[in-house]
């Protein structure tokens, strides 16, 4: 029962993380808080991969719901081994979603924002391997949207941090589920032999 309480606490932790990922991804569509940039298709292509909405958000609700519903599964199955197996598969789904969110966010951060420069709409930092992150004086190359570099760096860094936390939570449940699946049968056998 202790492992079920642990899984439920992890499920509760995933819900606000998933919600924040969705919000961060949505905000990337509206640089400078304006809608016209997305309407004119002047946002980086990476936001259309929905790393926060899909990978770090909606996909993450699957393990969250499974972890939270494990007590009901035990009540209906009569054993927590089937619930633990379900939690292992849900944790794997969560690991995949959080890894997707992390990888796309990292690539988007390295490539830099899509913005209007003296040469027109482009990604001016796309080929410098993320060096622009440490060269603040180059950020002024982006004329529009205002503060787009800071906007992207902040939101993508938030997505990186949140997806890392989600990955760790799902990894913890994966390990917990596997340990319970392997150790519990051994414990039951030992209890049976002691009682016999």
UniProtKB/TrEMBL annotation:
<dbReference type="GO" id="GO:0016020">
    <property type="term" value="C:membrane"/>
</dbReference>
<dbReference type="Pfam" id="PF05805">
    <property type="entry name" value="L6_membrane"/>
</dbReference>
<feature type="transmembrane region" description="Helical">
    <location>
        <begin position="82"/>
        <end position="110"/>
    </location>
</feature>
<feature type="transmembrane region" description="Helical">
    <location>
        <begin position="12"/>
        <end position="31"/>
    </location>
</feature>
<comment type="similarity">
    <text>Belongs to the L6 tetraspanin family.</text>
</comment>
<feature type="transmembrane region" description="Helical">
    <location>
        <begin position="46"/>
        <end position="70"/>
    </location>
</feature>
<keyword id="KW-1133">Transmembrane helix</keyword>
<keyword id="KW-0472">Membrane</keyword>
<keyword id="KW-0812">Transmembrane</keyword>
<feature type="transmembrane region" description="Helical">
    <location>
        <begin position="153"/>
        <end position="175"/>
    </location>
</feature>
<dbReference type="InterPro" id="IPR008661">
    <property type="entry name" value="L6_membrane"/>
</dbReference>
<protein>
    <recommendedName>
        <fullName>Transmembrane 4 L6 family member 1</fullName>
    </recommendedName>
</protein>
């Amino acid at each position: 029962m202790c492992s079920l309480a642990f899984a439920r606490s992890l499920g509760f932790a995933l819900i606000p993380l998933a919600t924040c990922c969705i919000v961060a991804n949505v905000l990337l569509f509206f640089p400078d808080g304006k809608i016209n940039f997305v309407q004119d298709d002047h946002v980086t292509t990476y936001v259309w991969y929905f790393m926060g909405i899909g990978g770090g958000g909606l996909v993450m609700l699957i393990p969250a719901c499974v972890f939270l519903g494990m007590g009901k599964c035990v009540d209906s199955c009569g054993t927590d081994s089937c619930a633990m197996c379900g939690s292992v598969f849900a944790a794997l789904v969560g690991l995949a979603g959080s890894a997707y969110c992390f990888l796309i966010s990292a690539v988007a951060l390295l490539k830099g924002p899509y913005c209007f420069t003296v040469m027109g709409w482009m990604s001016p930092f796309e080929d410098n391997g993320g060096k622009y992150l440490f060269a603040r004086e180059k950020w002024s190359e982006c004329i529009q949207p205002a503060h787009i570099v800071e906007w992207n760096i902040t939101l993508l860094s938030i997505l990186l941090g949140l997806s890392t936390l989600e990955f760790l939570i799902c990894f913890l449940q994966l390990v917990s589920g596997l340990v319970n699946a392997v150790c519990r049968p051994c414990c039951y056998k030992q209890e049976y032999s002691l009682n016999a």
